[in-house]
Design goal:
eight-stranded parallel β-barrel, 243 residues, alpha/beta, TIM Barrel
Length: 243
């Protein structure tokens, strides 16, 4: 553990609050914490429910992105038309990045044509905003993770993401390896976001090592690698203070 590595991991974090108890005061507290950063290093983004986009956008430091969740988060259980209506509204917001959750029921049925249509229409709707596609890998087997990753990459995802953080199983090394291998195979400049039960320096170090070993050091930056977390940020600040 080094101070430089801790600062690197801070710079990759999407500092997240997706609680049913979120309110303007709690989100302002989150933004205040993120704005302080660590030794002049700031997190990559704040990720919140859409109700709080304006609060984040008007209080954050300029270099930090505003991210929100969509796609009928966290279940993904709605029609494509309903999801597009949601995205059309978000496209008019101050959000820079949108993390959509896909319909895993369709994946279990092997309906990857539906998955492709869902993602491609989502990207078409939000245009230049960054699209992160949540696969909820804890609900899928390895072959489904591989195929879903490939479909998402080829359908316009800017990032593929492990988890909503609301499932029993979040990120796993096995899932992240499969996702990274899919990105490498595609040859496309697609990022990976690891989220769900990533809480400690050791967790961040593990996933950084996987990403670097498969995709190379050029992926270790906020444009290609994110860590979705809340407690990780606080734990890294605490670790830094002890060094």
């Amino acid at each position: 553990m080094t101070k430089e590595l801790i600062k690197e991991y801070i710079s990759l974090i999407d500092l997240t609050s997706l609680s049913s108890l979120d309110n303007e005061n709690s989100i302002i507290d989150l933004v205040s914490k993120g704005n302080k950063g660590l030794a002049q290093v700031l997190p990559a983004a704040f990720c919140v429910y859409s109700e709080h986009i304006t609060t984040v956008a008007t209080n954050k430091k300029e270099s930090i992105k505003t991210a929100t969740v969509a796609g009928y988060f966290p279940s993904g259980q709605s029609t494509i038309e309903q999801k597009i209506n949601e995205l059309e509204a978000l496209n008019k917001s101050n959000a820079d990045e949108i993390d959509i959750v896909v319909n895993r029921g369709k994946i279990l049925l092997g309906d990857y044509e539906y998955l492709s249509r869902e993602i491609s229409k989502s990207k078409e709707t939000i245009g230049d905003k960054c699209l992160k596609v949540i696969l909820e890998t804890g609900e899928l087997n390895p072959e489904q993770i591989k195929k879903s990753s490939e479909v998402a990459i080829n359908s316009g995802a800017n990032f593929i993401k492990t988890s909503t953080g609301k499932s029993t199983v979040g990120a796993t090394p096995e899932a992240v390896k499969i996702m990274c291998e899919s990105i490498k195979k595609s040859g496309l400049n697609v990022g990976i976001k690891v989220s769900g039960q990533v809480r400690t320096f050791e967790d961040a170090q593990l996933y950084r090592a996987i990403v670097e070993s498969i995709l190379g050091e050029e992926w270790i930056n906020k444009n290609r690698f994110r860590i979705g977390a809340s407690s990780l940020f606080d734990n890294l600040i605490n670790d830094y203070s002890k060094l």
